Amino acid sequence: MSRLPIRLRVTAAFAVAMAVVLAALGWFLYARLESHLRTELDTSLQVRADDLATLVREHGSLAPSGRGLIEPGESFAQLLDRNGNVLDATRPLRVAPLLDAAAIKGATYENRPSVPGLNDPARLLAIPVPRGVLVVGATRQNNLETLASFRNELLIAGPIALLLASLAGYFLAGLSLRQVESMRRRAAAISAETPGERLPVPSTRDEVERLGSTLNEMLGRLEAGLQRERDFVADAGHELRT
After folding, report:
1. Residue 34 — pLDDT band, cuts 50, 70, 90?
2. How confident is the model at residue 212 (pLDDT cuts 50, 70, 90)?
3. Which of 55, 65, 89, 147 could form a disulfide with 93 if both were Cys (CB 3.0 to 4.6 A apart)?
4. Composition of the chain by helix, strand, coil, percent to 5
5. CA 163 → CA 5, 18, 152, 175, distances in Å?
């Protein structure tokens, strides 16, 4: 790594930092989307449960009008007595109870990988009602597909964004080092036969400007020392001739 040019090392460090930032941002956006979808689903379940609970209190069952609140293949409801027996249920649920009614003390949310009669993953909401427990559920398949699609988009967009950011970092590093390269080329051209030559110092008020000024001061001292040496040799030669 130390043998790589500074420009590549700076770009590599920038790329690593950007990868960490993009990964953290992707995780944050994914978590926010998941939380938003879960909140929307919970709100929908709560509204549907309140409407069905009203019908249960009035009719003692999931009345035909209540079945209109259920979307076939998307949501379902089940009414359990206090012993956990199924009193009423919407299609495609079977007679097997979804929850242990005796354990329900208040509103309870629960995720299930599947429910009887519905192979999709689902989220349940159970609330106590006068006759027992009302369980309302909805499939999570749409939410999972949305999250999977968003995750795939992140996996595609993330590397592209990282590549573009790395190219931008490489370009900016080149711009920053261009002035150093200019000083290097001028320094390579300076010799004893070109007295008075100095390095170009950019007015950037940063480390590059201070480096250029320091090197020019060093060149001035070397030139002065060389001139003193030449003067000494000239004087010594003159003395020897006389």
Report:
1. very high
2. confident
3. 89
4. 60, 15, 25
5. 19, 10, 17, 18
